[in-house]
Amino acid sequence: MFLPRGVATAGARLLAQSRWGANASVTLGMGNRTSSSMDKSEITPINQIQETITHNCVVIFSKTSCSYCTMAKKLFNDMDIKYTAVELDMHKYGSQFQDALHKMTGARTVPRIFVNGTFIGGATDTHRLHKEGKLLPLVHQCYLKKFGSKNFRQ
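Structure for Glutaredoxin-2, mitochondrial, as requested:
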């Protein structure tokens, strides 16, 4: 069973690269919402992080120079699972995002990996979940919830 390559979950303002680059590297702009009802004071790094993890089954907050981040992305690539990578060192507000992730997860280190809206840990935690057979079911739960079983092939 694997996830279809064509499943796209990011909104129009999320700019994705090819699968072999950063898989789905994301640039989020501060104050970049299109809703006129949204007050500027509500647009915070935590809100943008929440929006990103809500709209994507797998999100990796990463840095391009981080070997653990590369290891985590490789695991998802090897499993043929589409993910969204937010490269904090390439992002204008990367430091603020990292501060927000610290408040949300208890650490500033990267990668910070979210699956199905839930923080699962860093690269080592993610590899452990995979070895225990628990990672793929978490991902599948999200895709089934978002897209239904018709998008899965066995």
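Confidence is low (pLDDT under 50) at residues 1-40.
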